[in-house]
Each structure stands twice: as structure tokens, then as C-alpha cells.
Description:
- The chain is of the alpha/beta class.
- It contains 12 helices and 12 strands.
Amino acid sequence: MSESLLSVKGLKTYFFTASGVSKAVDGVSFDLNVGEVMGIVGESGSGKSVTSSSIIRLLAPAGKIVDGEILFEGRNILDMTHKELLDFRGKEIATIFQDPMTSLDPVFKIGKQMVEMICAHQKVSKKEAHTMAVEALKRVGIPEPEKRMESYPYELSGGMCQRVIIAMAVCCKPKFIIADEPTTALDVTVQAQVLDLLKDLQKEMNTSILLITHNLGVVWEMCDKVMVMYAGSTVESADTKKLYSNPLHPYTWGLLDSIPRLSDKNKEDLRAIPGTPPDLRLTGNCCNFYNRCPYMTEECLKSSPPLVEVEPGHFVACHRQNGENKLVRGEVTVHE
């Protein structure tokens, strides 16, 4: 049986603003085992990045975790002191942010930033840290690593900067890596290289990865399991192969239908999910997806559907897809 590494239970992260309280993450729960790769998918504003930021407790001043538990190897991260958090970030958990050009300090050389990070988390001299940094750059495929140690971030391409970020992330051999859309700012060729690099490092070090992305193709290639988020909540969660072969939530159907396919012979417009996501200040009283869902019924307006395990390891939050009811994909719409 796989050993549990991270367990998030009933996580709620709200943003308190002058215009009201936005429920950015509203009751999210999931488990990640040692060596597993889990993907979180959903539209912009669904709560993916806020979920990952909550795990490392790195939120904007207006954001606050109001409920839930985040257990890492049985220890609640929410109970850690500031000093414990500083040691925890980077050593136990590393983060790869989505924009490599802004993740590095432009006024310091690559080598200085890497050495400083290594010395902060490991009891080594600067000379030893320098050697470790060079080895890390070499591991991620950066040519002439000694020379690159003397480069400033603006002297490197976006792909090179992302490799530097990944090198920094793996320097301390963390048990868990959060990759928040790590290929967003990169061209397609470099994206493939970065993903292959992450996959190789994950297998080499048996590191768990939480991958946040919009790209469902990347999820299929990289992830063991996937969680679909919408308006701050989990709407479906399952093993990747199971979810792709037998998706059950109307929102998941919409995401999968919007993927262009080379096998399509008819030149049709891409299918899109109609409407827009709800205002996060007004969610939680009904199904958040009701105004965009062609299968909506009156019950969807009365309460928010709970996340139910409809089959082993497959969870869905839908009033019409709860194990007893069986919604058929593509059936005649129930409302006009």
C-alpha cells in the first residue's frame, strides 16, 4: 500500500476585500501518496493556484485560510511557526512558479541565488553549495553550467530560466514539488523539454508532484490522478485513465470536449462551455455550475452538491450523478 505524503482536508481559503468575501477555495480535500503525480485542472479563477499557495502558506495579505487541515507526513502545516515554515519551504516542499522570468531576482547572478538558497536549507559551505548548484544545472540540461552561474536572469531565455528554477527546486531533494503551470510562458518545443525533465527527475528521486495546468494533454502524459476544480470547489476527482475514459461531471465533459483533435475530419468550430464562472462572493448556496450546465434541474438551485464516491476512487459533485442517479452524457437537455 502506498505511503501517504500530503493530505488536504476541508481546506477553505477566503479573500477578504472591501467588496466582500471571495471564497477562492471552499472545502477542497485530496490525498497524495509518495512518488505520485497529481494534476489540478480547471478554468482561470477556479482556485488551483490558491490551493497550492495555501499548502505552503504563501498568500496575499487579503487571503486567509479559515478552515481545514493540511497534513504533510502527518504534521499540520497550519500549526507551523514562521521559522519552521521558512525551513520547510524549499527543503521539504519546493515550488516551480508559472513565469520563470519573474521568479528569479534580476539584479543577482544565477549562481548567487542558487548558493544562497542551498545554504539556507543545508548545512554546507558556500564552496560546497556552489558545487551542488553546478551539478543541479548540469542535471537539468543547461550547457556550460559553470559559465551560467555567472549569468544574470535577463541573459537567459525563458526556457533556460525555467530550467534554473527546476534546478533550484531539486537542489535540496524535496519530497514534494508544486509545479504551478510551469510551461505557460514557454513555446511548445521548450514545454515538451521541461515536462520530460520533470518526469525524469520525479522518477529519479521518487518525488511527489502537484501539477497545476490548463492543458489536459499534459495531465494525461504526466499525472497518476487528477482533480477538476470549478469556482473554488472540487467537482470531480479520479485516477487519470478512469477520468478520461469515464468522466462523469458535466463540467469535465465540457473541458474534454473543448480539446481540438487531429482525428476530427469535419472542420467545425471548437466547442466551448457557454457563460462565465460565477462571482466567488456569491458561491456555496447552490451548484456553482448550474447557469452553464445543460443538464440543470430545480434541485441544482436548492443546494450545493456534496462530493460523493460513485465508484472506488472516483468522486463527483453533481446532484444528477451521485451513484443512485446516472446522468447520460449528451442526453436531451432538461431545460431551455
